[in-house]
Amino acid sequence: MGTLKTDSLAHSNQPLYQQLATVFRRKIESGEWAAGMRLPSLDALCAELGCGRVTVRSALAGLEADGLISRARGQGTFVRERKQPGFSHINLVYTWRDLVEFGRHSELEAVTDTSAVPLELPAWCSTEGIVAERYQRMERIYLRQGVRVCFSLVYIASDIYERYADRFQHSAIATAVGETPELAIGQALQKVMISSAGDDTASHLHIPVGSPIAEVIRRVYAPDHRLIYWSRVHFPGQYVHMDFDLLHPRTNDSAPQA
């Protein structure tokens, strides 16, 4: 492993041990630390990195929790074989029906739920229509075959959430909206951008900070133009494909959609 001192790490709000964990993940993903390889000892890593044992140990603990390395008593720490997902990529959805369907085939992991808060959007993000007084704020991780394929921040109008709370707790949010006949939808909009993973997204998706991601903003309005659903969804770049036939209408293919 090449010399790497802590003052050469990217400036970040992340704790140093998380930055080190990102460096270690990149070495595993690039093959520099190949499957089955025995890692340098804790003391050797500390000397190489120029930081303390607690910091390095915490970074390695994060990799172990993610299943990237394993420790064998009396033998050392080894890079584990990585199980490849049964899909190579995910096509971003381009219809409301496909978005509702995506949620039916994804595993759900709740991160946070906050009740009755005002809509707080990023400074660069504007919205049209009528904004509700209060929203339920939810963070969710969605998985396919155990692989984290997206991390979402969702606001759903509080009055709607309170009426159908059980559905929103146990289903993908867009799926719950789409499968509730009483909820009339007047407009559903989507914007796709290319961005990079910040600290929070990197932590939830188990990817390095700065990794390429697809950032998707979705807005759903009731027929009276009230904003009932807003979401920001981050997908790891390595799984996202957007395929277009410029001469013929687009048709569904066999790849999973998101």
Report on the structure:
The chain is of the alpha+beta class and 258 residues long. It is 27% helix and 30% strand. It has two domains: 6-79, Arc Repressor Mutant, subunit A; 90-241, Chorismate lyase (3-Layer(aba) Sandwich). It is built from eight helices and eleven strands. The strands form three sheets. Strands 4, 5, 6, 7, 8, 9 and 10 form a seven-stranded mixed sheet that branches. The protein has a two-stranded antiparallel ribbon with strand order 1-2. Keywords: DNA-binding, Transcription, Transcription regulation. It comes from Verticiella sediminum.
- Structural class by SSE content: alpha+beta
Percentage of residues in DSSP E strands: 25-35%
Number of domain units: 2
Please give the radius of gyration in angstroms: 21 Å
Mean pLDDT: 84
| SSE order, one letter for each helix or strand | HHHEEEHEEEEHHHEHEEE
Number of strands: 11
Describe the biggest sheet? 7 strands, mixed
- The proportion of residues forming helix, as a percent range, comes to 25-40%
GO biological process, one term: negative regulation of DNA-templated transcription
InterPro entries: Bact_HTH_transcr_reg, Chorismate_lyase_/UTRA_dom_sf, Tscrpt_reg_HTH_GntR, UTRA, WH-like_DNA-bd_sf, WH_DNA-bd_sf
Protein name: GntR family transcriptional regulator
Keywords: DNA-binding, Transcription, Transcription regulation
